Amino acid sequence: METKKTQNLLLALLALLFLFPQGAVAQQQEDGRRIIIDIPKYTLTLCQGEDVIKQYPIAVGRPIAETPVGSYRVYNKAVNPTWHPNSINPVPPGPANPLGIRWMGFYRGYGIHGNNDPQSIGKSISGGCIRMFNYDVSELYSMVGIGIPVEVKYADLVEVPGENAVVAYRDIYSRENGLRENIIGVLDDLGLLEKITPAKLEKLFNALRSKMVVFSPNWVVKVNGEFLTADTIYDRTMIFVNAEELNRFFGTDIGWDWNNSTGSLFDNPVSAYRIDEVLYVSIADVARILGGKLTAAGDIEEIDYRINFVKMNGKFLTSDIEDFKTKPRIEAGLINPSAAGKKEIEFVRQEGFEYQIYSKYGYIEILRNLP
Fold this sequence. Notes:
It is a single chain. By secondary structure, the chain is α+β, with helices and mostly antiparallel strands. The chain has eight helices and 32 strands. A hairpin with a 2-residue loop joins strand 7 (102-107) and strand 8 (110-113).
């Protein structure tokens, strides 16, 4: 009997060594890297210690197939994995494979992987696994090893990003009792509750059943579904947005044209207000110049600005991008005047530049000249 127990213990130890090779675990612990998955926010964050290396958008499990919450480790990895939905019908690598181009298992068949449906990112739609854009999962795969910690959490659904807004996330798995009361309490503490009409408040709570919502007495602006600012002015004809917030995010140079007493963007006039030295510009005029599409939800006073764009050395370059969610392509002449036509983004490396794709916010940053 004792011998059998000893054998079982040895087998368990061998299994651990197989799943978490000693060198890999030691390396991950030494450099302090870890993955944090936040289900309600649809984000995967790669951290080193307390510093964020990069954050990615993800898809998570459906309410009837929840992504498991807990502390895990990556125990296996695969390039161009084969999907085994059952024992007799494996799906080989290729466009039809829902695992995409990379796989990192972290718990009993659950894994972080690519996809064959980029429109699913940002939704609760999987069988419990974590889906990423293929170019994102390829990047993540190259930066993590076997044994890296993976923390899956169902985090706080309420955040306060500033004085005039409260961000609330959808309770995907119906786990948060008293969420409404919590939100109302936070709004009351900030002095915002009395500034939001009861009708608007109820419409915001209705919207929260299906998406992230920003509670504010003002119109709010999102970019590609992510909250940007609630520092806005509505004059019954146009919505004006704090120009500094737009400049910071887009890398633009919106300013005040003293000669014409109006705003200016790339030498184009834009409708603007100056209030206490703060410049507010028409978001409609900005979109007309930068490109993209504005969608307004008047009942909850929200604008979602859908735009994919490129910044170069921190400055806005173009919104003329093709196929952002799979293989982004940009006009080659913007990088090399002697080149022509649309090229895949890898082209910039051939021209001596580096780039990063920030898919969570919908833009590409061309970083610098390579040495």
